[in-house]
Amino acid sequence: MEEDLKFESEKSGELVQIDGIIGWKTMQNFAAELDFINDRLILRKDTGKFVPNKNFFWSGVPIVKVEHVSGRKLNFFFDTGSEETRITRNLFKKISFEEIFSHAEMLGTAGGWVYNDRKSVAELEIYVGDYLYNFRFIGSVPPIDRNYLVIDGYIGNEILKNSVVNYSLKSGVFKISYPEGF
């Protein structure tokens, strides 16, 4: 059974031991601080206090509301297991891109390797909270529909690794903070 909690890292090829899993069913009952800088997770009682601009909610998976530079509101899956931010092909219906590239790839997932006919765009600019992110050659994954909700992308770890993320599903708050001067 112990081998079931080991995964091969995509980048290094090393086996990664999983010591435990805190599921989203548990996490949605707490306010959390994910401190990627100091490798800490802090859970607090979630008071669910009112905030005027909610940008985080649950629809079977945690969703962060982001905004394209054009002003178009988008729904991105908060995927702490994803190494990089990706878009879904649903985004092509909402935003026009000058250049779209296509190639095949194998994606490493918690369930194993899957084939992906990847479509990439040369540039995508989105706001996540107060920060503008400019992605170059961002790739796509197949679309995921959550009943009535269309997911436009995934927030990956490359934008989180030097940050502190605070969220509360009850309050609807998702906030990324970076050290001063970052």
Oligomer classification = single chain
Q: What is the H/E order?
A: EEHEEEEEEHEEEEEEEE
Helix content: under 10%
Which regions are unreliable across 5 or more consecutive residues at pLDDT < 50?
A: none
The largest sheet has its strands arranged as 6-7-14-8-11-10
Mean pLDDT: 84
**C-alpha geometry:** globular
What proportion strand?
A: over 45%
Category from helices, strands and their pairing: mainly beta
Q: Tally the helices: what do you get?
A: 2
Give the radius of gyration: 17 Å
Largest sheet entry: 6 strands, mixed, barrel
Could you give the count of β-strands? 16
Distance between the termini: 42 Å
Written description of the protein model:
With 182 residues, the chain is mainly β. It has two helices and 16 strands. The strands form four sheets. It has a six-stranded mixed barrel. Strand 10 (112-128) and strand 11 form a beta hairpin. The model has no long low-confidence stretch (mean pLDDT 84).
What tags apply to this protein structure?
mainly beta, 2 helices, 182 residues
Summary of the model, kept short:
With about 180 residues, the chain is mainly beta.
Reconstruct the topology from this structure.
Layout: E1 6-8, E2 15-17, H1 24-27, E3 30-35, E4 40-45, E5 56-58, E6 62-68, E7 73-78, E8 86-88, H2 91-94, E9 100-109, E10 112-128, E11 131-141, E12 145-146, E13 149-150, E14 153-155, E15 164-168, E16 173-177
Parallel strand pairs: 7-14, 8-11
Antiparallel strand pairs: 1-2, 3-4, 3-15, 5-6, 6-7, 6-10, 8-14, 9-10, 10-11, 12-13, 15-16
